[in-house]
Amino acid sequence: MQILNGLYxxxxxxxxxxxxxxxxxxxxxxxxxLKTNDGLILFDCGCGDTLEQIFGNMRYWGLDPKDIKFCLxxxxxxxxxxxxxxxxxxxxxxxxxxxxxxxxxxxxDRCCGYLYxxxxxxxxxxxxxxxxxxxxxxxxxIEAMHLPGHSMGCTAYLFQWEGKKxxxxxxVIGTLLSGFFGWDGSIDFDKSKYTESLLRFSKIDxxxxxxxxxxxxxxxxxxxxxxxxxxxxxxxx
Length: 237
Ligand SMILES: [Zn+2]
Description:
- Helix content is about 25%, strand content about 25%.
- By secondary structure, the protein is α/β, with parallel strands linked by helices.
- The protein has a single domain, classed as Metallo-beta-lactamase, Chain A (4-Layer Sandwich), CATH 3.60.15.
- Strand 1 and strand 2 form a beta hairpin.
- The structure holds zinc ion.
- The site of zinc ion has 6 residues, from loops.
């Protein structure tokens, strides 16, 4: 699904762009691809069992998976990073915040394999980044924002594309409608950190939010963050 020129959603089972198991809607997080003049960037890569579907979707849009140069991870959960070991086999350079890199290196319960009745295959992240770090890949400047809570490794990525400020938000912001935030069952879930992250994120204006599951927000995503913050403050204190 094309979002803007050169920006696509190529995976995600909640809206059926990929498909994992009968009845499953949360097995495969959203995968996004950005096409630069110098190659492709992936944001997350799905659970691992849908990678060929993701590549098929890319080919539909004229994107060759062989042109993927980088994969950035929003957090270590299997539905987002389960294909990481396969991505590494393709010599794609992987980037994640320290807490995510630590989790996927062990593949332990922080990666939630048990939740999907699957085994997370561990992998080493090539480059570890930290909160507020700005880095340039394929001539695109990206800023990382560490937003722990749903998991300790949750990271949003902010960048400009076609004159719009884009944020890839992973599971920090939920996936359905107003006031919905990410799943709260992760072994490293932390209510107070999550609320702090929502408070910080609620001060950031963006034009388009690409969440970890479900619908993309094209109108004032900050409102969604404020609604999730409000819900968290009501429910979690
Ligand atoms: Zn998650």
